């Protein structure tokens, strides 16, 4: 059942919220021991909340927009009384003492939080192999990584363990696993969704966003979580666009941009599927423009230099005094690497050489992507440049970072971006990335709706 139909079925009491929860609990019990998408499942809480919703339905009371939908939450987002560990031993005993703003908004609309999803430790990774709680498998390509760092959130919806999930995206951590697991993932414009209650990886990049099997579900969750939050000074007033209303609108006249440099750094089998999709879009009469992007080689080093410094700063509170353990004493190799490099380049004698130059490069990249987007509505291209590797494969840090080369651009520039499934290579899902101007998130949603329609029409 699609998300829109399920919401109406629960409101009409054709499907009870409790039945929805119990159906997913059965799937989790069957699949999670193998896939390891959830670190924690709160069965009692979910059933209790579902029963409350069903009671309100029977009394004829009005329900919220999420009306009994079951939602998984990435383990770096605060949920009261749930384990908020960021998949690290550092916080293995920490229980959320409050709800993040996005969780408050989900609960207000009668969404049911079922559990906390697995992730790379402190979101520092692209494979969900660095979790203290073990590796997550990819339901869409068993034995391969699901991507990261929101790998548990992507795997949970791909394995149909819940209706929707929340992830966080610092350099591609929603879009990367969405591509690898064959689901939808959306990183909003920086500031469109509150970060209050999110454990920082790099505060100037981080954004919370939805993942789902169902495009309507992405729009619905975006409608619920977006908007100004007085508790987060980085948030901005949204323009009031309803993402779900876009499904009722007629075809647009969107202009698409294609950047050849994005294809040049991507493996050929992925490029072939992306180009087939682009050709299908052209054949439907849409205007597609080829555009240059000058600074592809600058993006990864710029992103990671800033990431290291901001992550080092964010982790100074994990000193073992107030809660948990001292992070340096118990963290994994990748987290320690980022802390040590961040500490080094934060020193007064090096900050000008590395960090300040990275900030200058970031400004250059932002201006370049604004230039690329000037005369087009949406840029389309590959989400990740290569297929997910087999779990346990020994790769270097730079090989791991290279998964992010096409996704970090949106975070550097603060623009919205998403990934949608467009095909498979050797049975492994491939995603199309869509990027737009700041606060034109709705154009990405509209483009996905229309591209999905094109692809379905062509079988």
UniProtKB/TrEMBL annotation:
The keyword Ligase applies. InterPro entries: Amidase (IPR000120), Amidase_CS (IPR020556), Amidase_dom (IPR023631), AS_sf (IPR036928), GatA (IPR004412). GO terms for molecular function: ATP binding; glutaminyl-tRNA synthase (glutamine-hydrolyzing) activity; transferase activity. The active site is at residues 74, 149, 173. Keywords: ATP-binding, Ligase, Nucleotide-binding, Protein biosynthesis, Transferase. Pfam families: Amidase (PF01425). Residues 19-442 form the Amidase domain. It comes from the Archaea. GO terms for cellular component: glutamyl-tRNA(Gln) amidotransferase complex. Gene3D superfamilies: Amidase signature (AS) domain. GO terms for biological process: translation. Allows the formation of correctly charged Gln-tRNA(Gln) through the transamidation of misacylated Glu-tRNA(Gln) in organisms which lack glutaminyl-tRNA synthetase. The reaction takes place in the presence of glutamine and ATP through an activated gamma-phospho-Glu-tRNA(Gln). HAMAP family: GatA. Belongs to the amidase family. GatA subfamily. SUPFAM superfamilies: Amidase signature (AS) enzymes. It comes from Methanothermobacter tenebrarum. Its EC number is 6.3.5.7. This is Glutamyl-tRNA(Gln) amidotransferase subunit A. It catalyses: L-glutamyl-tRNA(Gln) + L-glutamine + ATP + H2O = L-glutaminyl-tRNA(Gln) + L-glutamate + ADP + phosphate + H(+). The lineage of its organism: Archaea, Methanobacteriati, Methanobacteriota, Methanomada group, Methanobacteria. Heterotrimer of A, B and C subunits.
């Amino acid at each position: 059942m699609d998300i829109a139909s399920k919401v109406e079925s629960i409101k009409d009491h054709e499907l009870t919220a409790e039945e929805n929860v119990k159906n997913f609990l059965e799937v989790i019990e069957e699949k999670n021991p193998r896939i390891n998408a959830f670190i924690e499942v709160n069965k009692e809480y979910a059933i209790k909340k579902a029963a409350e919703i069903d009671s309100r339905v029977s009394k004829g009371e009005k329900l919220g927009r999420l009306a009994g939908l079951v939602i998984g939450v990435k383990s770096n987002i605060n949920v009261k009384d749930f384990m908020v560990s960021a998949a690290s031993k550092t916080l293995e005993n920490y229980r959320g003492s409050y709800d993040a703003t996005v969780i408050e908004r989900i609960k207000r609309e009668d969404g049911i939080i079922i559990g906390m999803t697995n992730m790379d430790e402190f979101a520092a990774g692209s494979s969900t192999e660095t979790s203290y709680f073990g590796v997550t498998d990819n339901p869409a390509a068993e034995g391969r990584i699901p991507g990261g760092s929101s790998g548990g959130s992507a795997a949970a919806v791909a394995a149909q363990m819940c209706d929707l999930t929340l992830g966080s995206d610092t350099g591609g951590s929603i879009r990367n696993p969405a591509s690898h697991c064959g689901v939808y993932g959306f990183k909003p414009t920086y500031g469109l969704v509150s970060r209050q209650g999110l454990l920082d990886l790099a505060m100037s990049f981080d954004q919370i966003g939805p993942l789902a099997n169902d495009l309507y579900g992405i729009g619905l969750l975006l409608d619920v979580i977006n908007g100004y939050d007085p508790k987060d000074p980085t948030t901005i007033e949204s323009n009031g666009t309803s993402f779900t209303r876009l499904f009722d609108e007629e075809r647009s006249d969107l202009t698409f941009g294609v950047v050849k440099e994005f294809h040049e750094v991507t493996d050929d089998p992925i490029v072939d599927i992306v180009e087939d999709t682009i050709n299908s879009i052209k054949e439907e009469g849409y205007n597609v423009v080829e555009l240059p992007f000058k600074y592809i080689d600058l993006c990864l080093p710029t992103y990671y230099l800033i990431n290291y410094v901001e992550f080092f700063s964010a982790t100074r509170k994990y000193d073992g005094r107030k809660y948990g353990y001292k992070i340096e004493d118990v963290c994994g190799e990748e987290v320690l690497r980022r802390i040590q490099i961040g500490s080094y380049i934060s020193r007064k004698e090096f900050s000008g050489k590395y960090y300040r130059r990275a900030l200058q490069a970031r400004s250059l990249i932002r201006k370049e992507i604004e230039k690329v987007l000037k005369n087009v509505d949406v840029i389309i291209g590959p989400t990740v440049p290569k297929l997910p590797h087999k779990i346990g494969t020994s790769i270097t840090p730079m090989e791991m970072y290279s998964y992010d080369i096409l996704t970090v651009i949106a975070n550097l520039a603060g623009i919205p971006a998403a990934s949608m499934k467009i095909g498979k290579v050797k049975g492994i899902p491939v995603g199309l990335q869509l990027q737009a101007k700041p606060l034109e998130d709705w154009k990405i949603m509209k483009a996905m709706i229309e591209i999905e329609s094109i692809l379905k029409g062509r079988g």
